[in-house]
Amino acid sequence: MSQDERPITPAEIRQRAYELWERNHRPDGFEIEFWLLAERELRAERGAQRRDQAMSQDLEVFEIG
User: Fold this and answer.
1) CA neighbours within 13 Å on the CB side: how many for 44?
2) Which of 3, 22, 33, 40 is the most exposed place for a label (fewest CB within 10 A)?
3) Are 27 and 21 in contact (CB under 8 A)?
4) CA 53 from centroid of its chain's CA atoms
5) Does residue 55 carry a pLDDT above 90?
6) Alpha carbons 11 and 16: distance in angstroms, whole number
7) Is residue 33 predicted with pLDDT exceeding 80?
8) Taking the complete model, does pTM exceed 0.90, yes or no?
């Protein structure tokens, strides 16, 4: 299973949420918001990776020679 096919783990979300929290000057009381934002960002990144792979595979079909 490639990296973009496996589920996003809570550890990955936790790490991204922590990074977002730090970048935003560590505000109190926004744990859920940062968790949800982190999850959304990771899902979007995985979706973009899947689209890029699909496009790459489609281009390979059309290569001549």
Assistant:
1) 6
2) 3
3) yes
4) 15
5) no
6) 9
7) yes
8) no
